[in-house]
What does this fold into?
Amino acid sequence: MTTSSDRAVPETAGGSDAVQAELLRFLTARTRKPWTADADLFASGGLSSLFAMELVVHLERTYGIAIRGTDLRLENFRTVWRMAALVDRLRQPAPGGRGE
Amino acid sequence: MNDAVAVAASAVTALVGHRAAEWDRAGRLPTEVVRKLGAAGQLAPQIPTRYGGPGWSSADTGEFTAHVGSLCSSVRSVMTSQGMAAWAVERLAGPAQAAELLPRLATGDTAAVAFSEPQAGSDLSAVTTTVAVDGDSLLLTGRKVWVTAADHADLFLVLARLGEGGAVVVVPRGAPGVRVRRMADPLGCRAAGHAEVRFDAVRLPAGSLLGDGGQSLSLLATTALTYGRISVAWGCVGILRACVAAAGEHAGLRHQFGRPLGRHQLVARHLAELWAAEQVATRVCEHASRCWDDGSTDLVTATVLAKYVSAGQAVRGAAAAVQVLASAGAQDGHPVARAYRDAKLMEIIEGSTEMCQLLLADHVLSRW
Ligand SMILES: Cc1cc2nc3c(=O)[nH]c(=O)nc-3n(C[C@H](O)[C@H](O)[C@H](O)COP(=O)(O)OP(=O)(O)OC[C@H]3O[C@@H](n4cnc5c(N)ncnc54)[C@H](O)[C@@H]3O)c2cc1C
It folds into this structure.
């Protein structure tokens, strides 16, 4: 089970530069619009929850992680920073494993 | 079809036999049919082998789903519910929960997905069912409608509000405060066991929230519906296959004006369009399943597309089949009569045709 500390999402820069750069490339290619690492992807006029699912699939495949359970919150995908931080955290083997 | 799928398909053909018409008229599937399929792991063949499931690919599951759908859309609906429930558990549950629930769903326990409410259909952000933490347990209150497979379900997966966010709650049918009331006379998929389910202050252990809850309602719904959509889409392929078979056979045998019906050009056009519909639906479903099996990000859109295209084709194709058979197919229980009613509902569930159109338009606008 996840602990409540998992719920804290960094509001500042998070995750490795390489992950951030790759995610910005993916977003730009997919939406044909420039994005910044702190831009709110789901703010009005932004992207749909269907697109959030696409991000989940992209992160899982690109980084060999499994985004399950409590991590499946829109908040974790709201900015490139948050996604990069999520990738960093899930790439560390969790105690007990994540069942994958 | 690979061998395991072909073996399972002939087992289902034998199990259903010619009884789908009778089940449709009675509005009920025999319990032993559901139990048998459940025990064989055939209601949710994509459950991974590490959880005791068959571990089929989406492509194989799709072909199997189409086969079941060609025999009986009610059985196929029960499969869709079970598969959606299993997929939701696989995605949303913590490791211990998945290890507890998935083996059960792979070997006999059945589950139904309870999302819709009287005031929350297309707009699931309007759900009012609420789960709250109460001491070291949970309290669930609300009312769900149109729960497919509720008739036989051992478990309900209930979409609820939890504080600011959402949660999927696993509720055993026997929990005090759960009341299941069958919905009478649905237009189609009549034997799929639809029911209204009420939860009156149902007390549940804290571990009943999938993955501790607190996810966003829209991501919870999108996650479960992704499986539901691809399953319904393949089910529509099955409806179309049954229609091609019935219309093709009838148009070859029945004579009017001195020749087979199929040799009248206007009837022949129905046959051509019906077969084209089946082929189009098959290809779009194969594409979605390939995206699923490859872990491609296109999966999400491909699934909406498959559901949208297949349901629309099934509605038009079933109408054409009834036209070709005319009075010979105009009786409840007949394959094309069932197809006609069942197909229409496929345009409503798992994201209506209009909701799919909005999603596909959104996709276009976000890219171009
Ligand atoms: C056979 C069957 C099985 C079902 N099984 C289940 C189940 O197992 N579990 C479950 O939770 N639910 C189930 N449902 C319920 C199903 O999910 C809903 O019927 C569906 O989501 C549509 O909601 P609604 O019927 O309330 O229609 P509404 O949401 O009231 O929509 C009515 C019409 O308005 C259109 N519409 C709505 N909003 C918009 C918009 N923004 N733009 C354009 N058009 C719009 C719709 O497309 C539709 O044509 C089932 C329904 C059926 C018929």
Remarks:
- Chain B touches chain A through 36 residues (CB under 8 Å).
- Chain B has a mean pLDDT of 96.
- The two ends of chain B are 38 Å apart (CA to CA).
- Residues 277 and 313 of chain B are 5 Å apart (CA to CA).
